[in-house]
Amino acid sequence: MIPSILPTYSRAPLTFVSGDGSWLTEADGRRFLDLGAGIAVNALGHAHPALVAALTTQAQALWHVSNLYNIPAQQKLADALVEHTFADTVFFTNSGTEACELAVKMARKYWYDKGRPDRTGIITFTGSFHGRSAAGIAAAGSEKMTKGFGPLLPGFTHLDFGDHEALQAAMGDHVAAVLVEPVQGEGGIRPLPDACLKGLRDLCDTHGILMILDEVQCGMGRTGKLFAHEWAGISPDIMMVAKGIGGGFPLGAVLATEEAASGMTAGTHGSTYGGNPLACAVGAAVMEIVADDAFLAEVNRKAGLLRQKLEGLVDAHPDIFEGLRGSGLMLGLRCKVTNADVVKAGYGAGVLTVPAADNVIRLLPPLNISDADIAEAVLRLEAAAVAVKEADA
Question: What percentage of residues in the chain have a pLDDT greater than 90?
Answer without folding.
Answer: 97
